[in-house]
Structure formats: structure tokens, C-alpha cells
Amino acid sequence: MATFLITDTDNGIINKDFFYLLGFQPTLWWIALRKNGIHIFLDKRYFEKTKKLNEKRICEKTNMEKVYFHEISWPLIDAMLISCSDSKAIEVEESLTLKYFKEIKNKSDMWVNSHPKKMEIIPSFFEKIRLCKSEREQDRLWKAIKIIDQVALYIEYLIKSKQIIWKTEIEVRNIIINKILEFGWESESFDSIVAFWSHSAIAHHTAGETLIENGPLLIDMGAIYKWYCSDFTRTYWVGAKTKDYEEFANIYQSVKKAHIKAILWTKVWMKAYEIDLIARNSIEKDGYGPYFSHSTGHWIWVNVHEKPWINQFSQEEIKPWMAFTIEPGIYLPGKFWVRIENIVIAKSERVKCSSKISY
Questions:
Q1: Measured between alpha carbons, how far is 325 from 332 in angstroms, rounded to an integer?
Q2: What is the distance between the alpha carbons of residues 213 and 12, in angstroms, rounded to a whole number?
Q3: How far apart are CA 346 and CA 217, in angstroms?
Q4: What is d(CA 149, CA 180) in angstroms, rounded to the nearest whole number?
Q5: pTM for this one?
Q6: Taking CA atoms, which of 29, 204, 215, 284 is between 20 and 30 Å from 109?
Q7: Higher confidence at residue 44 or residue 283?
Q8: Domain ranges in the chain with CATH number 3.90.230.10
């Protein structure tokens, strides 16, 4: 059996597993997992970088005894099939682009003395082994969180001083981007969501020219520190308290209570669905059950959204040094969405909330 992992950023597919393994981003690479070790094939433009890599760390991350680096000096698919000429089957990750899947399938059907190879699709190889964060990874994650905390404090200052009034959603997003660069490192971990009033009830709303006045404002944002992502959400009431404020305040208190319960009651070795149940039951007791219509959280890493999810069906067991979000919310269609999101990291017994921002 030969297992292949491929990324092709030339086609717009950015697989961040490469960073987990190599610490830099080649435009074309693939990996063969064999009995004798892990074989990493790279475009020759990046081959010089391999001389500076810590091979022991790569072996530890992949549970392999030896790592081999190879230059891709002939067509990619041909190289793959040559390297697995002694295998009867080929495993490829489910994230493989359709372009490569078809090419591998067509060539494997006619390659190697006319003996076709069975194609099998597997989940991400790194998805499971990277769920628990090393001390180094935790440090980078904490720093990404610290950056976005500083941005959140500045946004709250603008709200309290009413300087955010009459700014547009896109102007506020630009402030977030500038502050991330000022306080920290690379960029946003995703396109920040700045959504006023009914826009907050639109999942993944794109900030536009809407003026911010009196009412609910949802801000979902994150920063990157050395490739590690943070993710933070709050829904604020901006400006004067209108007739809708009381409903907003009641909903906010319900979400806040569910959020705090989920953090305080989460224990190591419980199942992810149990965390979702804690938050969901709390919101249901307040009478808003039908309006909690999304998952309670997700894992986070160098991709801001990672599997598995904290939802009603997840059987994933919480283990020490896992990092994930807890983000219950109440969604009123066409009106607004109140959500509170923080990253937590599992310690030896319970989880620790990452953010220092108050509710």
C-alpha cells in the first residue's frame, strides 16, 4: 500500500499541512508514506530549504522512523506511480483535487506492466495527529489570541466612546486589519466579519457600505501569528438603547450564560457532543432552543476552521492540549445574531479560556 498526500497551490488549493511538517510553503509537493519512512517530493526551487529542516521533528510528527527528500524532476504523476511500482493499491487523501485524482486514476489503470492499481480515498493523514498541540504550537496560538484581544479592546473603546457611530462596516474592517498589523504579525486569519443589524443574521456576511448607528453589531475576527490562527466573536450593542435593546439584552445574557457553562463544565476525556449539549440545554431552558441553529465550536490550528466540530453528533474525545472554540449563539432570522466565541485549550483536567476580554 502506498499513501499519497498532494498539494498544488498553483491551482489555488492551499493545503496548510505543509507548514505543519516543513514550516514553509512550496507551490507543488507530494508525500509518499511507505514502510521505510516518509518520502517528501518537492519542486527543486525549494529543495535547498530542506537542508535546514529538523528531520527528527518531522519524524516525531508523522510517527515515521526516517524522512527522505526528493526533487520532483519528472512529471508528478509518473513519479508517483514509479515510486509505488511494488504496491497493489494507492491511497489518496479526500482533499485531493479532482484534477489530480482523475490523472492518477487514468494513469494507474494503464501503468506498471498493464496491472491497474486500486484507488482508495482516506481522511486527512495529519488531521488526527495534529489535534493535540505541542508546547511550541500552544505558544504561537496564545500569541495569535493576544493580538486579537488587543484589537477587540480597541474596538470596544470605539464603541464606548461612540466613535464607531457613522462608520461603515468596511471602515471598521479596515480598522481591524490595520490594528492586527500594528499589534502583531501577518494578517487576518480570515476575512473579518463586521455585520450591523440584520446583516449579523447572514452567515459569513461581507462587510459593505452600511452605516453603523444604534443597534447590534456582530464582529467575528482573527489574527495569524507565525501561521497559527485565532478566532474571536462578540455581538455588541452600539449607540442609544432603542425599543429592541431589551430583547437583545435578554438574548445576550442567555448566550453568555451558555458560553460560560460550556467552558466551566467541559472536562478532559468527555465527548465533543457533550459540550454542545451543555450550551444547547442552557439556551433551551431560556426558551431560545429553536434559534440555536449551528454547532457550538470547531478545532483550530493553522486553518481557522478545523475538523472535528463541537456539535450534537461529534464523538471526538477531548484530550489534553487540544484547542477548539466554544461559540454558542442565538440566531433570529432577518433580525440579528448574538454569538460569543473564544478559543479554549484543554489542560490536564479542564479547559482554559484563552481570551482576556470580558463579556
A1: 22
A2: 39
A3: 30
A4: 10
A5: 0.86
A6: 29
A7: 283
A8: 135-353
Buried b or exposed e, range 203-213, using 16+ CB within 10 angstroms: eebebeebebe
Whether residue 308 is preceded by a cis peptide bond, meaning omega within 30 degrees of 0, is: yes
* Cell 500594528, located at residue: 182
Helices H / strands E in the chain, number of each: 9, 18
Every domain of the chain with CATH number 3.40.350.10 lies at: 2-129
Specify the 3-state DSSP secondary structure of 298: strand
- Could you give the CA distance from residue 170 to residue 337 in angstroms, rounded to a whole number? 19
28 has a pLDDT exceeding 80: no
Q: Which amino acid is at 298?
A: H
Q: For residues 288 and 57, give the distance between their C-alpha atoms in angstroms, rounded to a whole number.
A: 48
Tell me how far apart the alpha carbons of residues 83 and 35 are, in angstroms, rounded to a whole number.
13
Which three cell numbers mark 242?
432603542
Torsion of the alpha carbons at 162, 166, 170 and 175, rounded to the nearest 10: -30
Architecture of the domain delimited by 2-129: 3-Layer(aba) Sandwich (3.40)
Instruction: Give CA–CA dist 18/131, Å, rounded.
Output: 16
Residue type, 144: A
Edge-to-edge strands of the sheet including 89-93?
A: 67-71, 37-42, 28-34, 2-8, 89-93, 118-122
Angle between the 135-160 and 169-183 helix axes, to the nearest 10 degrees? 140
Burial of 15 (0-12, 13-18, 19+ CB in 10 A): buried
Which residues are CB-contacts of 124 (< 8 A; sequence separation ≥ 6)? 17, 93, 94, 95, 307
What was the pLDDT predicted at 21? 82
- Percent of the chain residues topping a pLDDT of 70: 88
237 near 315, Cβ under 8 Å? no
Topology at the third CATH level for domain 135-353 = Creatine Amidinohydrolase (3.90.230)
Specify burial of residue 314 (Cβ count, 10 A radius: 0-12, 13-18, 19+). buried
